[in-house]
Amino acid sequence: MLAYTIRRLSFIPIVFFALTLMIFAMQMMLTPTQRMLTYVPGPDALKGGAAQVAALIEKYGLNDPFYLQYGRWIGNILQGNLGWSETARMPVAEALVSLFPATLELVIFAFVPGILGAIWLGSRAGVHLNKPIDHGIRLFTVLGWSFPVFVFGLLVLMVFYGSLGWFPPGRLSQWALVEVGGDGFRRWTGLNTVDALLNGNLAIFLDSLRHLVLPVVSLTYVNLASMTRIMRTSMLEALRQDYVRTARAKGMSERVVQNRHARRNALLPVVTLAGMEVATMLGGVVITETIFDYHGIGQFAANAASNLDFPAVLGFALYFALVLVVLNLVVDLLYPLFDPRVRLA
């Protein structure tokens, strides 16, 4: 297991180097003036007009050969300077750090019930093939698979907020925003639900949950549908394997055969899909965050793209590349827990 982990870890610098090279090559399509914005730490550096811009282009060597500019850019990134974002009116790195807890909170509440529900539903559908429970689960997943996220999101928003007024958009109500921004509320994690509990403020905790309901339901249903389909197919394949028939022939109970032998091996493709789903959600669920006015990384990236905020867009691309690399590593390390053959390979 240790050797397997070391091999996987050794690939990270290579993959991240290739990703940064691709992102920088894309950045080189911009003019030197546009690329200069990815180096300046704040708006004060641009107050000198055209002369100041020319001086900054010279200072950062934006007319130098590709390899020199790439090395300088990587050095800038390692120092935490991703440039200034006009969209957020703050440094890009600071904007990403401040918005990450909001997206993480949404992902946690949406992913955990989604993956657990998918494993259970997919297993039940596979075990009860072509029975009423299987048909019901298949109908449920087909509807979720067919519904575009923005359509389902707008539908639940229209019903549960527009008509019933139960679950409003945003992250917090106005009174809660004022209280959270006050001196009496201490920020520990940036996650409203966790910080509210740590501050002993039940009212803010409940208000935060109330605002999370609709975006979480939208994300969970769509992801649950796709993962359930994969789990059902994988479970059907596992139940047909020789080791399952052998376990039954040994007299093991059907519950043990299904849970310990079939389901564990059926989880492999689900683990892969789940890793990609988490990476996608952590990269910013743009449509969901925009529909529900949820101020996370996805909404920030969408606004930056619409405003042609190049430093913010490139900073988001780097952030998303890092998320993909880390989540791929996590999935690789989870494989041996489900399939001992990976350990022997």
What descriptors fit this protein?
345 residues, globular, 75% helix
Question: How does this structure look, described?
Answer:
- There is one protein chain.
- Helices cover about 75% and strands about 0% of the residues.
- The chain has helices spanning about 1-25, 30-35, 50-60, 65-80, 90-125, 130-145, 150-165, 175-180, 190-200, 200-240, 240-250, 255-280, 285-290, 295-305, 310-340, 340-345; strands at about 85, 90.
- Strands 1-2 form a two-stranded antiparallel sheet.
- α1 packs antiparallel against α15 and α9 crosses α10 (about 200-240).
- The N and C termini lie close together (about 10 Å).
Helix and strand layout, with pairings?
Blueprint: H1 2-27, H2 32-36, H3 49-59, H4 66-78, E1 84-85, E2 90-91, H5 92-127, H6 132-146, H7 149-163, H8 174-180, H9 192-198, H10 202-239, H11 242-249, H12 254-282, H13 286-291, H14 297-306, H15 310-338, H16 340-344
Query: How many strands in all?
Result: 2
| Dominant shape | globular
Rg calc? 24 Å
Output mean pLDDT: 83
Q: Beta-sheet strand percentage?
A: under 5%
Q: Residue share in helices?
A: over 70%
- Uncertain regions spanning at least 5 consecutive residues: none
The ordered string of helix (H) and strand (E) elements is HHHHEEHHHHHHHHHHHH
* Widest β-sheet, arrangement of strands: 1-2
Biggest sheet features: 2 strands, antiparallel
First-residue to last-residue Cα separation: 10 Å
The tally of helices reads 16
> Structural class of the helix and strand makeup?
mainly alpha
